[in-house]
Recover the amino acids of this structure.
C-alpha cells in the first residue's frame, strides 16, 4: 500500500507593506495610512484583515496565494494595492 506524503500548510512571509513612510492607521491617523493586508488563496478570500505589523501568516495549502496591502485614502476610504502573487 502506498501512503501519500502529508501535505503541510505553508507559512507565508513578506518583508514590508511596500509603502515606506506611510503611517499605520490608528486613532491619530485615519487618512493616508496603512490598514493591513488581505490574503486570498486560489481566488477565494482567506482573511479580510491581517494587521499591518504582521509579516507572516500560516495558510492552508493552496496552488496560488495573493496578498494585497489595504490602506485609507485621503477621505478614509479603504483602497487595495495590486495583488502580489505567489505559486
Amino acid at each position: 500500500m502506498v501512503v501519500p506524503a502529508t501535505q503541510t500548510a505553508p507559512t507565508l512571509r513578506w518583508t514590508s507593506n511596500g509603502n515606506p513612510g506611510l503611517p499605520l492607521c490608528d486613532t491619530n491617523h485615519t487618512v493616508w495610512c496603512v490598514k493591513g493586508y488581505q490574503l486570498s488563496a486560489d481566488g477565494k478570500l482567506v482573511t479580510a484583515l491581517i494587521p499591518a505589523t504582521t509579516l507572516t501568516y500560516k495558510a492552508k495549502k493552496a496552488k496560488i496565494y495573493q496578498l494585497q496591502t489595504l490602506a485609507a485614502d485621503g477621505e478614509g476610504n479603504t483602497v487595495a494595492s495590486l495583488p502580489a502573487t505567489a505559486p
